[in-house]
Specification:
Layout lengths: L2 E9 L3 H12 L3 E4 L2 E7 H13 L7 E7 L4 E6 L12
Antiparallel strand pairs: 1-3, 1-4, 2-3, 4-5
Family: Belongs to the CRISPR-associated endoribonuclease Cas2 protein family.
Keywords: Antiviral defense, Endonuclease, Hydrolase, Magnesium, Metal-binding, Nuclease
Protein name: CRISPR-associated endoribonuclease Cas2
Length: 91
Amino acid sequence: MKKFIVLVIYDVVDNKTRNRLVKCLERYGVRVQKSAFEALLNRKQYDAMMRRASKMINPVEDSLRVYVLDDIINIYTWGIGERKEQDCIVL
């Protein structure tokens, strides 16, 4: 089964919500910075992580950004600072 790299970056205001999100993300990947996780996931794992993590975000106060690094780059965001249409260059 094909796997791809996923980078998750978040900014969550509420401590309880942030702790729940961290526990969720720890099931799928490794914390690489205070608010960033990397994971090597197959499609089933990715879908499960996305379902769980996106439900925890308060769209008025929080931000969740998910970068899928594969042959085609997809970027998903929730909450403050939602991504506008723009070019993305990955080196």
